[in-house]
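re: ur question from yesterday

yeah so i grabbed the chain u mentioned. its 213 aa long if i counted rite. heres the sequnce exactly as i have it in my notes:
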Amino acid sequence: DVTVVFAGVSDVETLGLEEGAAPSEKITGAVSPTPVESLIDLALQADPDLASLGLLYDPAEANSLADVERAKDYCAEKGLTAVEAAVEGDQTAESVMASLAGKVDAVFTPADSTVASQAEAVAQAAKTAGLPWYTGADTFVESGALAAMGFTQQEMGQKAADMAVELILGGDIADVPVYTFSGPQTFVNQTTLSALESLSFPEETLQAAYIYQ
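ran it thru and got these structure tokens back, copy pasting raw so excuse formatting
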């Protein structure tokens, strides 16, 4: 009998729902898709010689699995070698990041809550290894990752709250369909970018991005 309003979901199909559709069950919410292909394009802009991309994620998270599959497909399309680096068992995300040193040219992580909980330590491991770290959430960049593309935690929470209020006030869930954000923003950590001296983003990218110092 409980109605669920979700947020922080990047792949609605993992929930058995359809984007923009009125749900048949008591589940609706806000989808914030990770622009995986655009993130990889951003990495290629920063380093045209990029040849390999590490994929750091928790395979127990369905959202992460879906985004990693997209990343692998796009890497194949772009002629990049994708190297999976799963956080499993008693491993820490920090140690898995450190293990990628010398094996890849950059690292991508979806909006993965397991890695997010260790983001500051992972970002430090990436800096130590000299690896640019691209992610699917702005909070990673605030913690020290190089760049992300997506939507802020604040706007996701506000949208989910608006939907919940509509239902609490008596609205029919059929009239509160799954909402999908569009127009992702770019986030860049200037301190990290300055530390990675061999990389640079186009000026227009930086001008349009939200910059963390």
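noticed a couple things. The chain is about 40% helix and 20% strand. also The longest helix spans residues 62-78.
anyway ttyl
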